[in-house]
Amino acid sequence: MSYVCTHCGETHEGLPDIAFDRPAYADNVPVEEREKRVQLTADLCIVDNEYYFIRGVVEIPIHESSESFGIGVWVSQKRENFETYREQFDTPTIGPFFGWFSNEFIYSGERTLNLKTMVHFRGHGMRPRIELEPTEHPLAVAQREGIPLDEAWAFVHGMRRNAAT
Asked: Which of 13, 103, 129, 155 is the one with CA 20 to 30 A from 139?
């Protein structure tokens, strides 16, 4: 799918997914203490041997397209559910499990940290699908109803600008 972006004027091929490399709580640990206090892989994070997080994907449907826009995020898990996932990460037969949205960004003027979620495990090498509680939060509405392609590109450009600063 090619698209002439109304934000930068360039033609883009395919909508990229956006991902966070760690939960916001890991960022709260001072850099000089992270090696000791944060255990982080591409899919799992433990902070202070007390807080547990897994990485999944919020999928946003794109209007008038069969494609969706993925946002790779972290959600908290209670220890038992975290351990179940760690032991059975490649099976769709566990869960779903409740978790708190553990990345902070602004989506349509609203903060995302600590939104309620359900984590749906898919197995087969796929990261879990993160379902937001069906509220009126703009990200939850976007997940339910989809967004126009230009809105997805605006979000991508905004996140890239934020990452560069």
From this structure: 13
